[in-house]
Amino acid sequence: MKRRLALAVATAAALTTVLSGCGALDTAMDCVKTADAIATSVQNLQQAVSNASNDVTQIEESLNQISTELGNLKNTTDNADLSKAVDDLTKGVDSVRTAVKNGDTTPDITPITDAAGEVAKVCTPG
Fold it and tell me: In angstroms, rounded to a whole number, what is the distance separating the alpha carbons of residues 36 and 32?
């Protein structure tokens, strides 16, 4: 009887460890996917800024895409480094959004590209 109980407890502990490991793996995969989506959105933003003389609304659309991905990422992490990178990226997006609203058709997007690079670093496995 004691042996069965010990086996049941050991099995439950092992299962809990495996399941929590899967949770961490799922979170890491979500981070990688979101970092990739942010990188794509940042590339779209760079292109939009390059073409701003043709259509300024592309900048706003790209900023909205980045904001959506940031919201998704912020809701799935408890990593302090990632939270800081997300906050920095959010500040960069807000800064560019304000510049565009004030008529700047070629805003400085360096804070966004730098912060996106930090998100990518934090989300890169290994």
Answer: 6
Q: How many CB atoms lie within 10 A of CB 5?
A: 9
Please tell me the pTM assigned to this model: 0.70
Task: Give residue 82's pLDDT.
Answer: 79
Residue 63 · residue 97 · CB < 8 Å: yes
The predicted-structure confidence for 91-106, as pLDDT tens digits, reads as follows 998 998 999 899 888 8
CA dist 114 and 101 (Å) reads 22
| Cβ neighbours for 30, distance < 8 A, ≥ 6 positions apart | 72, 73, 76
Domains of the chain, first to last: 28-123 (1.20.1440)
